Amino acid sequence: MRKWMFLIVGVLVLACCGQGLAAEKPYAGQELRISFITGMPTDVALKSVIPEFEKETGMKATIIDTFYGEVLTKNMVDLYAGTGAYDVLHVESIWFAQYLPYLYPLDEFMEDPRLFDAAEYDMDDFAAFSPLTLSVFSREGKLYGFPHMAGVPLNWYRKDLLKKAGLKPPQDLDEYYNHAKKLTQDTDGDGKIDIYGIALSGARSGLVDEWLSFFFSFGGGLHARPELFLRTTFNNSVGLKTVEYYKKLYDEVAPPESLTWEFGEVGSAMQRGVVAMMWNWTCGGRWYDDPETSTVVGKVGANTFYPARFGLNALSIPADGPKKEASFEFIKWAMSKDIVRKTTIAGGPNPARASVVNDPELTKKYWWFPALRHAATRWARMYLEIPEWSAIDDALAIEFQKVCSGEISPEKALEVASNNAYEILEEAGYFKE
Description:
The structure is a single chain. The chain folds into 2 domains: 29-150 and 311-381, D-Maltodextrin-Binding Protein, domain 2 (3-Layer(aba) Sandwich), CATH 3.40.190.10; 154-309 and 388-427, 3-Layer(aba) Sandwich (D-Maltodextrin-Binding Protein, domain 2). The chain is built from 19 helices and 14 strands. The protein has helices spanning 2-24, 41-57, 68-81, 96-99, 107-110, 118-121, 124-129, 159-164, 173-183, 207-217, 237-253, 263-271, 324-334, 337-345, 354-357, 360-365, 369-379, 389-404, 410-427; strands spanning 31-37, 60-66, 88-92, 103-104, 138-139, 142-143, 146-151, 154-158, 196-199, 275-280, 300-303, 308-309, 311-318, 380-381.
């Protein structure tokens, strides 16, 4: 009898332990398919800690990489068809309005104490990074993504070249141009420029972000409500001054190939030591101190003196995702303070949590974090947060590139670009009578 009692007690103990383990790992055995933009620090660093997530939860996380130029089209095809191909999406803020109809709000999970401890998680830590950090992925009081990667373009400069020329980092656009003129050099006397004053993000996909920083700096404005957009929003004296300024930079102090350059090529030019300054995103900060790829290790600094688009990515759940609670568990884990700090150290993106970007230990290593923090709190802006913004961006870029290449005048470019932008919004129905 005693033997059977021991066996019964043992079975009960094992059963209770099994229930406890199941409660700790309620999604064990599930696989999450996560769509990520490849080639960015985000996916590299996150992959390095995925084994930790899998061990903690018993789930498997599979990251599907897609290049930046292809990811939106690929994901939208799947979302429109309702295939349920992904459980988590890596969403770029500039495309958020296009993704929005296919995303699931996270509030349902955040309001469930079984799934989310708001006090411990500290969402205010995101808001403290920038007033925009949570609002960018919010609509009508609902949050559609946890911020993952934050960036604001800075002015990156060669400290050694400025010092040699007796210059301090520029504090406005006049100094930016004047410094660039002084720093454009033929160093070996062969009649060819070896170091240009600046690099431009003049490619069709990058020009408008840079141009708008200058437009805002000269006093231009863009109303957040698209129905208030005018044909004169850009086609005015400030817009003309900005186009002329951009062409002057291109003609006098930038490499001719700048019209084909975007974020990566501009960063490479700094790494190779062929430019003295540049407008560029903060997520490339690690490049300049990488001894394997950079010739300017320890020679680069950063400051900010112009408004710039707030670049933010988030992790979101598709509305057709079949494992929403498990997906939320992954997003919550990936954007927790501990994991954000780990991924930052592992080579990841600029963190969107104030506690991490302000960490004294990290700011010693990532010397551009103070400039990023300053830019995020003071200078960050968002453009029209509508699906049509990409088309407007392209309409402006096409005409401004023609100015740089000498095909049309700045006046004509502004007229055509502004009319095209207005018509894009008109066709979309924003100007209702």
